[in-house]
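Figure 6 in text form: structure in, sequence out.
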């Protein structure tokens, strides 16, 4: 089975634009579950620009599926993850120096720090995946540090012009290597309704995490209804 993890960060971004309590990413997550999401993904950033700690706490209480916390590999975030106890954690780069050229976490260059963080969280029953570029060196390092899995960065594939065959092959080869090394294989970043199928067909993929395209589509399919409800109120006001 291929799991769909729905990332609701953008819902929190809209809320934070007003610093009030709507739209609530937790409510959005519950609706995503109704639609068939197999898990909810949130990125608690160090600058708290969208998702807040309160969101993760409420998600832990209310989500019926699993909660996947994307986080930087910092002592503060590791302590928070130990307290918040998500089902899964995905280590992502937040600082420029943690990035490889294409944007995944440079596990190879930060093995010691990442190994410690993986051990701490996995010792508490939280499965850790590492968000990396689809490259052999990073996959091998991912295995070295003892992670449960890797989330392959699909951005290069999604952003490529033309038929994207080369970039798809990089993801496919990375998925195959990771699986052979015993790592669970996830994918994400930039996936949308038009480009998801070839990635979803890779046999080693067990989870895709998708945010932007789903939230963007939700705005479009919800707009007509939202306006209809407001218009009905205005008509009622003058009856
Ligand atoms: N996976 C990871 C590790 C991410 O950081 C993101 C973006 O927050 C996603 C998946 C989802 O990417 P998108 O919003 O482009 O679908």
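Output sequence:
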């Amino acid at each position: 089975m291929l799991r769909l993890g729905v990332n609701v960060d953008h819902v929190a971004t809209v809320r934070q634009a007003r610093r009030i309590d709507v739209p609530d990413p937790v409510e959005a997550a519950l609706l995503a579950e109704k639609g068939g999401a197999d898990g909810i993904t949130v990125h608690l950033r160090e600058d708290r620009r969208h998702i807040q700690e309160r969101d993760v706490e409420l998600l832990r209480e209310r989500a019926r599926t699993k909660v996947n916390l994307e986080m930087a590999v910092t002592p503060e975030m590791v302590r928070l993850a130990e307290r918040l106890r998500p089902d899964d954690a995905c280590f992502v780069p937040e600082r420029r120096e943690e990035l490889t050229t294409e944007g995944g976490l440079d596990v190879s260059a930060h093995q010691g720090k990442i190994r410690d963080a993986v051990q701490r969280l996995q010792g508490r029953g939280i499965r850790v995946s590492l968000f990396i570029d689809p490259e052999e060196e990073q996959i091998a390092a991912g295995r070295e540090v003892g992670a449960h899995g890797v989330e392959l960065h699909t951005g290069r594939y999604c952003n490529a012009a033309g038929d994207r065959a080369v970039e798809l092959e990089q993801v496919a080869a990375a998925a195959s290597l990771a699986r052979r090394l015993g790592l669970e294989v996830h994918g994400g970043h930039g996936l949308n309704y038009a480009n998801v199928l070839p990635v979803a067909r890779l046999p080693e993929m067990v989870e895709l995490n998708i945010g932007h395209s789903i939230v963007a589509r939700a705005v479009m399919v919800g707009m007509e209804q939202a306006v209809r409800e407001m218009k009905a109120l205005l008509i009622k006001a003058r009856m």
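Caption detail: The pocket of pyridoxine-5'-phosphate is lined by residues 7, 9, 43, 70, 90, 92, 131, 151, 188-191, 209-213 (CB under 6 Å).
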